[in-house]
Every structure is written in C-alpha cells, then in structure tokens.
Amino acid sequence: MRIAIIATGSRGDVQPYVALGKGLKAAGYIVRLITHENFAELVRSHGLEFCPIRGNVQAFMEDPKTRQVLESGNFFAINAHTAKASKSMAIDWAKDSFTACRNIDLLIVGVGGLFLSMALAEKLDLPLLQAYIFPFTPTKAFPAVLFPQFISKLGGAVNRLSHHLFRQIMWQGSRAGDALARQQVLNLPTAPFFGSYNSPLVQRYPVLYGLSPSVIAKPLDWKQTHLTGYWFLDEAPDWTPPAALLEFLERGDPPVFIGFGSMVNRNPEETAELVLRAIQLTGQRAILQSGWSGLSQDDLPDTVCMVDSIPHSWLFPQVSMVVHHGGAGTTAAGLRAGIPAIVIPFFGDQPFWGQRLATLGVASAPIPRKKLTANRLAAAIHRVINDQAMRRRAAALGAKIRAEDGVTNAVAIVQELKKRSFH
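The structure corresponding to this sequence follows.
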C-alpha cells in the first residue's frame, strides 16, 4: 500500500509525521511525505520519499511583517496574516500535492494540511485518515487550545462550543485559498460555507492522536479516536554531538536548556540580554539554542554554551530542566526526558501546553512572552530547580511516556483498518 502524509508548518509540526512515516515504512508500506521544500534533508535522511510543496515556513516566520504579527500574540491577527499567505500559495500547494497523491492508496494529514487533503481525497476518491498532535476534536472535557482554559468552569457545553469555534476560525481563514485550489486546480465545487467537518470523507475513519494518554486522558465523548502515545523521531544512528557540547556537559552539573524553537522576536537583542541576565541571577549553567541575534560563544561566559539544532531526544536527558515556548514537539520531548519545565508561550496552542504541564505538576505556571522579565525567569528557574516533588512527578511521567510506543500503536491501527476497509 502506498501512503502519502501531508505535513505543513515548522520543524516541530513536521517531525512527528516523519516519525509516523518511518514506522509505516518499517511495516512494509511505501511512504511519501508532502511538505515544505526546506525539509528535504530531514525527510530523506529517514528513508521516506520526499515530495516538496513550495515555500519555507521558517523564512516566512522571520519576515519582519510576520514577526510583528507574531509578537502581538493576537491569534486572530496571526490567523488573518497566515491565511493571506496561504491564499497566495494555495494554487501552487494544490498543484504540488495533487501530483504527489495521484498514485497513492491512503492519505494521512494533520491540522496543517487538512482542508487541502479533504479536497484531494474528494477529487481522487482516497481514504483520509486524520492524525493530529494537539486536540482538534470537539469535546466537553476541556476547552479548545485557542481558548483560555479557565472557561472550563462554564461547563461542558461551552467547552464543546469552543472547539467548534476554533475549527471555524481555522476554516474561515483557509476558505478563500481552498476555493481557488478547488476551482483552478482540482475542478471541484466550492466547499460548504461552514466547512466539511461532517463530510463522510472525515467521518468514515477514526482519528489518531500522537499524544500520551498520561498527559491528556481520552475524553469520554471522543468516539473512534485513538491516543496512541507520542510520535517521537530519534536522532539518526550516525549522529554525534559536537565535541564542545560534550566537554561543556562534562564540566559541571546538568545545565538548564533555554530555547524557543522556531519562534522569532522583533527585538532579539533584548531577549538575549534578558535570558543571560536571568541565568546570571540564578547561578545556573545553561545551554542556549542558537538564534539569539548573532550571539556567538565568544560573547558568552564559561557557564553558558550555545548550540545549533541538537536532537532533543539526545540533549534533554542531559539537562536539569527545559525553558521553552510550549510547542507540541518540544513539550513532548521534555516530558519524555522526565525533567520539569518552564513554558514561555507566544501564541496558538502554546498557552494550552503550558497550562497543561502546570496542572500535571511538572512545570511552573507559564509566563506569557509579553510578561517575561529577567527577574521572573530567574525566580521560576530557582523555584523549579529546588522543587523536588515536581522533579519526582516529572520523572514518573517520563517513565510512563517512555514505556509507550506511539508510532507502533498508530501503525497497528492503520494495519487493522487496511484489513477492514481501505481499498
């Protein structure tokens, strides 16, 4: 069976689907990953077919206009900005994806490529399997990731409504681009005004979640839904850490890791100064992920080491705690390592994960990026470093997550569905 996976977004959005594709390939399927041009090396290094769609998400996020919108933290403004960009690329993405999907038997997709995948599945009569890395299915159990979690006090009906509103925000932002793709590339009728969430295309098969049931318990109203465990992509067997990093780790106590993934700042110099001041106030050793406004190792004290892209699966077990933006992938990697966290959410689903970790007792209360100061970060680091109960909870949760095999579980579901219904 030939499987195509459409995964769009930042590296943290794409990497879990590379892991899932790798597991499907090991089970004997032919797997191609349809994603942005800049992920060619990542996809091919794990033995998957790579089918590019035009565009580079990181370059888009580093654009000054995008930076300004992201810094606002206003999801509606962010969604409008990304919708405008998506509309401009809709025809190219549809052409690229249509070519890549013509001879496949199953299409797997996350939130990023969902609407395009619905159109492709309709055009090519393909089974469509939804596979998400953050909650997207309506439930009464908790609010949608976009909404403040305190609204759960208003009851299950409000929680469920928030998910439908979130879905509509995503769809309405994509609707214009979707219409162009359907009309000019796929020769399909325009999708309904409120979207195709209830279409038989998306209702026929179960929904997979690359999430741990130890982190989010499966809601009772999630029917035909599987929480398989996280889809982790470990470092390549021939990967070796930089010698300078090994030497730094061996020189003292486990350091604090501080990195904000693909997030960007309009004033990176100020952010770098803030973070270095916080580290100085705590007296801790630290590893900084690169991207701090041209800082080099020569600019840093001996207690701080700067790294480029280091696999979290290798690095996080070496550190004492993780300070991060709350992206789904980084959150999962920190939990798996069994270490506590401080989450500095920027936008999107990041506040949800920050609050979730705090509720689980494995992180301090999240500090929104707009409210981050050196003193607040230093106080949070000091509190987490010295909270032994939090460290024990993080270690216990990490052990549970490491005992799960999300990729194997997801592959088993695909294999069972193939026996029953896939053509």
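The mean pLDDT is 90.
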